[in-house]
User: Fold this.
Amino acid sequence: MNKDLLEKGFIPEEICTNLPNGFEDIEEISSSLHKILANNQIGNVINEINQQKDISSLSIPELERAMLLYSYIGHAYMWGKTEVEDVIPKNISLTWYNIAEKLDRPPILSYASYALNNWSLLDNSKPLTLDNIRILQNFLAGVDEDWFIMIHVAIEYEAKNILGSLKKYYLDEDMQPKHLEDALISIKKINEIMNRMPEKCDPYIYYNRVRPYIFGWKNNPATPKGVIYEGVEEYKNEPQLFRGETGAQSSIVPALDALLGITHSNDPLREYLDEMRIYMPSDHRELLSGLDKFLNEDSNSKTKENKEVVNEIIMEVHQFRNKHLEYARDYIFDQALKTQSNSNIVGTGGTPFMKYLDKHLQETVPKDD
Ligand code: HEM
Assistant:
């Protein structure tokens, strides 16, 4: 397990903002995706993409950018036409599949593309704060869509402080209360960022303009059999079922649960969260399986030494889940009741979420022995 990742955080060290020669068509379509979607032109522009792309010399940051752009174009094609089709044309399916293979994630928009690799700083001399992030790619664009992603990015950036401090205490055998106090300060900052979602992301806009593009093709009534990736030999022309983009593909909360000894008894959301790991970058996935073992062996005995402050941290994670549940209700559940459009009350990943998010909240409780 690469535990240093906890101190570095899950945001990559280098983010590519422009693909090299050979990908001009992809860059061009991506930069005007909002206009293409507004004019219902996505079906036409896809035909202009050259399907034979050589990805062999792309670096990891370049592969991540390519994955991001192909995922956005792929989802725009799936959800941006008047009629949903269940075949992704070979102009994008072949290269998208090859990139995904290299990155060891399924060819679908996942959190790593949507949030972790999708930003740059406005001013490089200043730290990452909500005032200093620019989102690189969006679907329809607009402040609500950007803000939704920016909140995730800012939380990821802060999370390296709580995860780094908990790592020192729980994994490095340096059990000074100071590390827990630092962790408490950090989770309070995360909650402050989380609380700011409604400032610029309106629930109606989110539900009707942002969310429709990030759905996947598994457990989705629009694609009951899944989606064919045209020409991808490995899939043998069989439809594929992949989940949509969701914050549940972030490694922060599973890592916090494991380090703090927060457990969830079996339920559909827990199964779903385990499944989410295949959509994460492989080093994040490996870290989480390492932490699972730690949770089973070690967390509670170390918590006992400084139970009070650990419990304060756990109550802040509870606060996070409480606010999150409020957003799931305001941004999805209540909106679905008000409108007939995309009114299936499951998350973008395809879970009946309200009941189980609440269960996970109730399981985030202080230790009493
Ligand atoms: C308007 C804001 C948000 C809404 C409406 C929302 C919605 C949802 C929904 C419906 C789920 C259920 C599973 C699924 O369908 O994927 C979920 C899960 C999850 N989301 Fe969000 N989300 C929001 C913001 C965030 C943010 C900012 C984060 C921070 C990284 C986040 C992290 C998570 C996590 C970790 C889970 C798994 C549940 C758990 O472990 O308790 N979400 N979200």
Remarks:
- The two ends are 29 Å apart (CA to CA).
